[in-house]
Amino acid sequence: MPPPDVLAFDFRSHDRVRHLEAIVRYSLEGIATAYGRFDGTEGPSPGAYLAVVSGHSVADYADPMGENHWPEEGREPLWDLDAFYASLGRVASTCDGAVVVSVDGVVNRQLVRFRSPDVHLEYATWMGARHMSALDISTREEVVVALTLSQESGRVTRFRDGTFESVTPDRFGERWRGRS
User: Fold this and answer.
1) What is the dihedral of CA 177, 24, 76, 95, to 10 degrees?
2) What integer is the mean pLDDT of 83-106?
3) Which string of b and e fits 25-59 if b means at least 16 CB within 10 Å?
4) From CA 81, how far away is CA 23, in angstroms rounded?
5) Residue 37 belongs to some domain of the structure
6) How many domains does the chain have?
7) Cβ(119)–Cβ(162) under 8 Å?
8) Containing domain of residue 82, as a range?
9) DSSP string across 131-164
10) Has residue 10 got a pLDDT over 80?
11) pLDDT the model gives residue 42
12) 76: burial class by Cβ within 10 Å (0-12, 13-18, 19+)?
């Protein structure tokens, strides 16, 4: 019998899941760039929290966020990026809760509140509740990656395995301009 890891999917390095993560990240950056100012002068700023997960359900570690739902449109970012981007923009401006995206690229209609696992991590001083939750939940085996858009600063942060990498709007696109 082969070792179990030979038959396991490594979603963290799977090309399709990495592509999905890139779509989510660049969509969040696009929403932040389109909004522009995160100083409170233009009304409520958009903010978002998405988690790409493996498994068939998040019920063991998440609760529904009431009537906060993803629109019917844009539930398949790998197939209809424009509809996903438009729906993400609406959700980021009007809803609370985390968006759950399966590794196959389908957005769950119900937004959730993730229950924090029993972990003790160091939080950055700029982190609010959504970011701390994303950092905590990124330690779960089922969570491939979590991403957030900060309502306060427009920064986009990627959380994986209890670590994070954050990019402020002034640094969006540096990876394509040859600066790190």
Assistant:
1) -140
2) 96
3) bebbbebbeebeebeeeeeebbbbbbbbbbeeebe
4) 8
5) yes
6) 1
7) yes
8) 10-173
9) HHHHHHHTTSTTEEEEEEE-TTT--EEEEETTEE
10) no
11) 63
12) middle
11-69 confidence digits (pLDDT tens): 777 789 999 999 999 999 999 988 877 666 666 789 999 999 998 899 999 999 999 99
CATH code of 77's domain: 3.40.1700.10
143 in a structural domain = yes
**Helices and strands counted in the chain (H then E):** 4, 7
Own/partner contacts of 163-167, CB < 8 Å, gap of 24 or more, are 163/138, 164/124, 164/131, 164/134, 164/135, 164/138, 166/124, 167/29
> How far apart are the C-alpha atoms of 146 and 133, rounded to whole Å?
9
Q: At what angle do helices 81-94 and 15-35 cross, to 10 degrees?
A: 50
User: Which tokens sit at 20?
Assistant: 């999905």
Reported as half-sphere exposure (CB side, CA atoms, 13 A), residue 48 has a value of 32
Is residue 180, in this structure, part of any structural domain at all?
no
Q: Please give the Cα distance from 150 to 46 (Å, whole number).
A: 8
Q: Would you say the pTM of this structure is higher than 0.70? A: yes
Q: Is residue 4 part of a domain?
A: no
Higher-confidence residue: 179 or 103?
A: 103
Q: What Rg, from alpha-carbon coordinates, does the chain have? A: 16
pLDDT digits (tens, 9 = 90+) for 115-172: 989 999 999 999 999 999 999 999 999 999 999 999 988 999 999 999 999 998 888 8
Average pLDDT of the chain, as a whole number: 90
